[in-house]
């Protein structure tokens, strides 16, 4: 799976939209500017009921991903959020506070929900098209057969990596696979925080730990995918106009160097995605505010 095109696009989008959003952050206040509601005149026959005070948008946002909120995901302690209103973002929480850890079953359940979401099938189709256009891993060939192989490999790569990093390793090391958004501070501070989450995570008991789940899980996922279904060395034959064969040797992709490259690519992609996740709530509110 190639991200030579996808990574720069995501990076540009995150920088272009989140910098002005971060710059416009102000001290907590009621952004609605609504005047306090006045109590209705009391009746002589029955006590008047005080109308509920208007809830500010800040207060609404604070409860967005709380475990008891209506936006709670199918698994308790997760969300129903989607990046850019499409890509599953179920393991990211905003203003979560103290919430209970996920069980091993819950970790596998929410990763499965994300990995087999219908949007993912379209996303992997897009990545496979980029890979075919670049002719990455030429052992797959071209045409419909080559695209089908690339699609299967991209889907398998993403699914294996998601389960390793988000469920299997977190269950083994008792670490929390969720991303807890910082949500305050300057752009550089928040970016640094998001990048650091690839290497620092929270244990199920709430303590900071080295992110074994991301690092070791990513290494295992890259090894499994590279040495199981990625192309072996092959000899391709093509015939010229005179009918003479031309032989092209294609080296195997099942090498340690390629495994390291795949792991590094996945780690870079995951880190970039965390940066986008950190600023997505601000972008979401900005878009919603403009729509209103």
Arithmetic mean pLDDT = 79
The count of domains is 1
Give the helix tally. 8
Cα-atom Rg, whole angstroms?
Answer: 24 Å
Q: Can you count the beta strands? A: 8
Structural class determined from secondary elements:
mainly alpha
Low-confidence stretches: 1-49, 55-70
**Hey, roughly how much beta strand do the residues contain?**
5-15%
Give the SSE string. Answer: HHEEEHHHEHEEHEEH
Q: How is the largest sheet built, in terms of strand order? A: 1-2
- Report how far apart the termini are: 39 Å
Coarse shape:
elongated
User: What does the largest sheet look like?
Assistant: 2 strands, antiparallel
Helix content: 40-55%
Can you summarize this structure?
The chain is mainly alpha-helical and 292 residues long. It contains 8 helices and 8 strands; from the N terminus they run ααβββαααβαββαββα.
Write a structural description.
- This protein is elongated.
- It has helices at residues 6-23, 57-62, 104-115, 118-134, 143-173, 187-196, 212-228, 256-291, and strands at residues 82-83, 87-88, 92-94, 179-181, 200-202, 208-210, 234-239, 245-250.
- The chain has 292 residues and is mostly helical.
- The protein contains eight helices and eight strands, in the order ααβββαααβαββαββα.
- It has one domain (77-291).
- The strands form four sheets. It has a two-stranded antiparallel sheet with strand order 1-2. It has a two-stranded parallel ribbon with strand order 3-4.
- Helix 3 runs antiparallel to helix 5.
């Amino acid at each position: 799976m190639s991200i030579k095109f996808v990574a720069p696009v995501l990076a540009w989008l995150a920088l272009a939209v989140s910098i002005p959003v971060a710059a416009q952050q102000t001290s907590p206040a009621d952004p609605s500017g609504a005047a306090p509601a006045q109590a209705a005149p009391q009746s002589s026959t029955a006590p008047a009921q005080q109308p509920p005070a208007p809830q500010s948008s800040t207060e609404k946002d604070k409860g967005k991903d709380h475990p008891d909120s209506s936006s709670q995901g199918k698994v308790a302690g997760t969300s129903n959020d989607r990046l850019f209103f499409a890509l599953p973002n179920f393991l990211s929480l905003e203003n979560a506070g103290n919430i209970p850890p996920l069980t091993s079953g819950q970790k596998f359940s929410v990763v499965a929900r994300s990995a087999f979401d219908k949007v993912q099938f379209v996303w992997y189709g897009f990545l496979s098209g980029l890979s075919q256009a670049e002719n990455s891993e030429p052992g797959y060939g071209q045409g419909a057969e080559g695209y089908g192989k690339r699609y299967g490999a991209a889907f398998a790569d993403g699914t294996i990596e998601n389960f390793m990093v988000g469920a299997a390793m977190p269950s083994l090391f008792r670490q929390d696979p969720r991303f807890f958004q910082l949500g305050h501070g300057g752009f550089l501070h928040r970016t640094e925080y998001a990048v650091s989450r690839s290497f620092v995570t929270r244990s199920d008991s709430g303590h900071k730990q080295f992110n074994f789940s991301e690092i070791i899980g990513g290494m295992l996922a890259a090894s499994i995918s590279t040495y199981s279904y990625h192309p072996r060395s092959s000899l391709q034959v093509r015939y010229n106009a005179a009918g003479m064969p031309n032989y092209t040797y294609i080296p195997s992709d099942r090498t340690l160097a390629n495994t390291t490259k795949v792991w590094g690519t996945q780690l870079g992609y995951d880190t970039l995605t965390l940066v986008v996740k950190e600023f997505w709530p601000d972008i979401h509110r900005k878009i919603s505010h403009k729509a209103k």
